[in-house]
Amino acid sequence: MTVSPSPAQAAPDLIARFTDLLGPVGVLVDATDTASFCTDWRDLYHGRALAVLRPANTAELAAIVRLCNEHDVPMVPQGGNTSMVGGATPDGSGREVVICLTRMNRVRAIDPADLTMEVEAGVTLKAAQDAAREAGFMLPLSISSEGSAQMGGVLATNAGGNNTLRYGNARELTLGVEAVMPDGSVFHGLRRLRKDNTGYALRQLLIGSEGTLGIITTAIIQLHPQPRAIEAALCAVDDADAALKLLGLLRARDPALVQAFEFMSGTGMDLVTSLIAGTTVPLGERAPAYVLVELATPRPDADLREYTEEVLGEALEEGIITDAVIAESEGQRAGLWKLREEHAEAQRRAGASVKNDVSVPVTHVPELIRRATAACAALIPGIRPAPFGHMGDGNIHFNLVQPEGMDPAAFLARSHDIMDTVAGIVKDLDGSFSAEHGVGQLKPYMMPAWRGGAELAAMRHIKAALDPKDLMNPGKVLPPAQPGA
Q1: CATH architecture of 229-341
Q2: pTM of the prediction?
């Protein structure tokens, strides 16, 4: 493959100043070195970078941000580069620098009395989870990409994941942040306080802003007691209505035990077991849909296995589920979770796919799945709907795989038709077109219809106040302003 010359050749003086600030190890300019930073995980976007900058601490980051601001250089913050919406990919101009915080990768402290962790932005979520576990605690945030996703990106996108229905998403788990603002100033907000009513909660502006308002460098994360017992069960159900009834039964019995409740369609499960090595459904017959339930408790005296058997037995007697298996070991539990976590990869291997990360009130999830399945089948005959996800909090990844034999490019050319079809149903059900993946550069066009009027105007005012030059991750989240707007 031929790699184009680096845009850095056009700006040697600026590159030299970056190198003075960060040292040679902190600046990548050769096109072969920067290529992986210029393409998103889904391979939908391909850009070019003036340079990839890798600061080792907050002071270095602040210095390069001030330099970028001085020279009007746009900045694209990037963590583990796992964005599903192109939120961390530079454009094709070659003017933007990618700022990667991989070198800022320390877990600074864990406070057992406060149940908090101070962690730098470049620490992967998995490493943060492991550090919490080694200290006897639990960082409950869990997503499929946790081995690569970094804490700065996790917070910048307000990641949700598997345990949101019990512990909340990144926003609920974050007490304080430190961040470098677009002008290079540092917001010192590393507070461990649960109660702090002293003006606007600036950390909440930064969390979920996708790097458009500043770059999070460090955070104070709430931890939880490590569960003493965990039980995972895979249940076969006839449809999403039955899955919702199962959720209701679990909540009626003991809502505090429900840690995860994941829905998977039969089509999606078939793709996983046929395309991902080492996966099998440990049930007697194929089902139209499945639910992965995980129950957990920190209580030392709880007989969680007996409780799980009782509640699933009740669900079988009432016809809510048709079959179920409870993991007998940690290995079997991991195997059940692999069936869920490999959905995205299986769909990628099956061909082109269009992803709809949407949310609706939990009670509307079955209607969403029914209506969107029918609408997409009418739009493109033979399309393979494979909805799955966090039914317990109303977040369904309503993904659609190309019909077998269809040209992938032709299918992807219909992406916006498909997304708009699903989004119309989501909007009718009082939902959101982006539950946890964010807006990025894939979905800003949807913002005026969904967040227009006073809400979008307020967002624009905030962006203009904090980043008047529009240098911080430009082209993401907010659509271009219309003339006269």
Answers
A1: 2-Layer Sandwich (3.30)
A2: 0.91
